[in-house]
Every structure is written in C-alpha cells, then in structure tokens.
Amino acid sequence: MAKVMIVDDSRILRKILTSTLTDAGHEVIADAGNGKEALLLLERFEPDIITLDITMPVMDGLEALVKIKETYPNITVVMVSAAGQKSKVMEALKSGASDFLQKPFEPEDVIKVINRFV
Ligand SMILES: [Mg+2]
Fold first, then answer.
1. pTM for this one?
2. Strand-pair partners of 99
3. How many CB atoms lie within 10 A of CB 103?
4. Could you tell me which of 49, 55, 82, 111 has the fewest CB atoms within 10 Å of its CB?
5. How far is the CA of 3 from the centre of ligand 1 (A)?
6. Residues of the chain above pLDDT 90, percent
7. How far is the CA of 38 from the centre of ligand 1 (A)?
8. How far is the CA of 15 from the centre of ligand 1 (A)?
C-alpha cells in the first residue's frame, strides 16, 4: 500500500486515478489541480508517491517536479503525459521523475507503474 497524491488539472482524471488506486488498495491522501496547490499541500501531507500531470495551469508539472525534488527528494514522482510530450517526459526523467504514465491509460497501466515503487 502506498500513500499517493494526485496532481492533475482535470477533475475527471483525478477521479479516475483516485478510484483506480483506491480499488488496488492504495491510499489517496490528497489531490491538487496544479503544481502550486500540490506544493502547498505537501506542507501538510506526506505521500510516498505523487502522480504529476505535465500540462497544468498556474504551475505545470515540470516546474513543480523540480521544486518537489528540491524539498522532498525521497518522494517518488510519476509523470502523467499526453501523446507528443516525449521531450517533456525525457526532461522530467532527467529532473528526477521515476517513471511516467501516458494518457490515455488503462487501470492496469496505472497499477503496474505505481506498484513498481511500493
Ligand atoms: Mg493537464
């Protein structure tokens, strides 16, 4: 079981990820709609794993990743990317992301990635 924070500007995607992870026995302890919100929540919550969308308003996933890794180097970050974002994914992996999940994904893809870090 992992404690997971979900960061995505799509409410539907946050719901899908929450139910998928909860059904698989993980605990979703917080969710946020952009990187700035996520950083604020990290002052109160201690997730083991963060799923971090790349494209978000206010603060995108790449900027948030750098800040998260600066302050919380032990949190595993899994990027959530869209088709055509290969260079951003590569950049994220260089900045400390542990893996990525490309949209659209199936529940088993989510669980497989998260379970790599449990
Ligand atoms: Mg997005």
1. 0.97
2. 78
3. 16
4. 82
5. 22
6. 100
7. 14
8. 13
65-78 pLDDT tens trace: 999 999 999 999 99
What pLDDT is stored for residue 28 in this prediction?
A: 98
Beta strands in the chain (DSSP E): 3-7, 27-32, 49-53, 76-81, 99-102
Distance 97 CA to ligand 1 centre (A): 17
Q: Kindly state whether residue 118 falls inside one of the protein's structural domains.
A: no
Burial readout 87-98 (b: 16 or more C-beta within 10 A, e: otherwise): ebbebbeeeebb
Averaged pLDDT, 51-61: 98
- Structure tokens, 40: 């604020």
As for how many domains the chain has, the answer is 1
Residue 111 Cα, ligand 1 centroid: separation in angstroms?
Answer: 20
- For residue 24, the enclosing domain spans 3-113
**CATH code for the domain of 97:** 3.40.50.2300
Q: Mean per-residue pLDDT for 89-95? A: 98
Average pLDDT over residues 85-114: 97
